[in-house]
Amino acid sequence: MAKHFTTTPLGAAEAPVFPSPSLSVAAALALIAALERLIEAERDLGGYSGADPAVDSWFREAEAALEAVLHWTEVLERAPLRGLGDGRLRLVARATAGVMRCEDTGELAQRMELVGDRRSLLHMPGGSPSAASVNGLIDAVLDRVQACVRLAEGPGWLEAVDPDLTCDGWDIDPDEGPAAFI
User: Fold this and answer.
1) Considering the chain, what is the average pLDDT of its residues?
2) Cα(107)–Cα(104) distance, rounded to whole angstroms?
3) What is the pTM of this model?
4) 44-72: per-residue pLDDT in tens?
5) Residue 124 in contact with residue 88, Cβ under 8 Å?
6) How does DSSP assign 61-119, residue by residue?
């Protein structure tokens, strides 16, 4: 019977230690999953707004998905900050909650313009792998927020909004950083 001996020192055979993700990252991933469920629910509804009892379950599904999105935005907003990336994810949660709670079309247009055009203000500076990961999470959340609004409001909803209600004239200074977003 052969005996097996390791040829590397004991310390080299140990598994590498990776930092645990912050609560903000975990909440952002859950928010992305909740937004996916909301997108699917909105697709099922397909813009239907009648009173057919056959689609009541779809409405309940969409309402539950929206509640889950708002729940995860609240969790993300309350998560302890471990670094700059957590702060950026918190701002994304606030922007997402603002869009999801918005009932006025003009205000929604303003918020969506910020989500679309001012996204770079939320991104992490630098080219580190952690900054790229956080920026990927930010883009994933905001892309899904845009998809939800397009599905809920219809394809040409923005053209129907009074141009005076949009924020083209807002004086947002990119040098202010992400605080200018809110």
Assistant:
1) 77
2) 5
3) 0.75
4) 777 566 666 777 788 888 899 999 999 99
5) yes
6) HHHHHHHHHHHHHHHHHHSPP-SHHHHHHHHHHHHHHHHHH---HHHHHHHHHHHHHSG
